[in-house]
Automatic annotation (TrEMBL):
The keyword Electron transport is assigned to this record: no
Keyword Lipid biosynthesis listed: no
SMART domains the record matches: CO_deh_flav_C (SM01092)
Domain FAD-binding PCMH-type: 1-176
Key words of the record: FAD, Flavoprotein, Oxidoreductase
GO MF term set: FAD binding; oxidoreductase activity
InterPro entries attached to this UniProt entry: CO_DH_flav_C (IPR005107), CO_DH_flav_C_dom_sf (IPR036683), Diverse_Substr_Oxidored (IPR051312), FAD-bd_PCMH (IPR016166), FAD-bd_PCMH-like_sf (IPR036318), FAD-bd_PCMH_sub1 (IPR016167), FAD-bd_PCMH_sub2 (IPR016169), Mopterin_DH_FAD-bd (IPR002346)
Any single Pfam family the record assigns to this protein: FAD_binding_5
Protein name: Molybdopterin dehydrogenase
Length: 269
């Protein structure tokens, strides 16, 4: 199939991009990496009236560091983050990125694009929630910052308004003594995760975020982990690939393994 007809805009500033979206009155769609959007266009699962390509907005292609945080711009490629020394300052991001699709897809796909797409089986939304990142949204009413844990509203649903642009993700840098773990199970590498977990251990507290187990990332911060807690986090009804009970078994194994890994790392820090 081919995409349905659409207008194309390539603004050079964020304000111009917001204006294009506002003019479309809900009919616009932002293009950054396009690794999720372009296939959806080709299958006519997405039919925007106008495609707003933000790749010419130079300010969105930067990674900036300050005050214990890294600000990842909306057009920064996943592969660029993977290769950047930043991945050593945000170890959980470095652990997760090799699991995102394949290298060729990461060469075009963007970190913020994955967050905006909000696939419940995606790795990067889980990382953002586990690390308590925040997302910067710019619209006609100005700029607002939304915690990642409040950004995801359901499968492919977010708090991003139809006339807003997700311009960056603000991710905390690791501290001395932090420990991290990340794991997932899929039928093949690069497939959607049947179950996955991101873990952050700090000062004896465990933050774990599950993905592929609900319609959005599920985060809990605790001092002790029980099987009942892990089972409660899995609320998907299941599908042709895996039942709810099977996903619960997978998630229990993954969570306990990665919590142990993160705790060892924190203890050695």
């Amino acid at each position: 199939m081919k995409a349905a007809p659409f207008a194309y805009a390539r603004p050079s500033t964020v304000d111009e991009a917001v204006a294009e979206l506002a003019r479309s009155a809900g009919g616009g769609k932002v293009l950054s990496g396009g690794q999720s959007l372009v296939p959806a266009l080709a299958m006519r699962l997405a039919r925007p009236e106008v495609l707003v390509d933000i790749n010419a907005i130079t300010e969105l292609s930067r990674i900036e560091r300050s005050d214990g945080f890294a600000e990842i711009g909306a057009t920064v490629r996943q592969r660029a983050v993977e290769r950047d020394p930043l991945s050593t300052r945000i170890p959980l991001l470095g652990l997760a990125l090799p699991w995102v699709g394949h290298r060729e897809l990461r060469s075009r796909g963007t970190v913020c694009g994955s967050l905006a797409h909000a696939d419940p089986a995606a790795e990067l939304p889980a990382v953002a929630c586990c690390l308590d990142a925040s997302l910067t949204l710019v619209g006609p009413s100005g700029t607002r910052r939304v915690p990642a844990r409040e950004f995801f509203a359901g499968a492919m649903m977010t708090e991003l308004g139809p006339d807003e642009v997700l311009t960056s993700a603000r991710v905390p840098l690791a501290r001395k003594g932090d420990g991290f773990g990340f794991g997932e199970i899929a039928r093949r590498h690069g497939d959607f995760a049947l179950a996955g977990v991101a873990v952050h251990v700090r000062d004896g507290r465990i933050t774990l975020t599950g993905f592929g187990i609900s319609d959005r990332p599920v985060t809990r911060t605790v001092t002790e982990v029980s099987d009942s807690l892990l089972d409660d986090m899995v609320d998907t009804e299941g599908d042709t690939h895996a039942s709810r009970d099977y996903r619960r078994r997978l998630f229990r194994v993954l969570a306990r393994r990665e919590i142990a890994r993160a705790a060892r790392e924190a203890g050695n820090g």
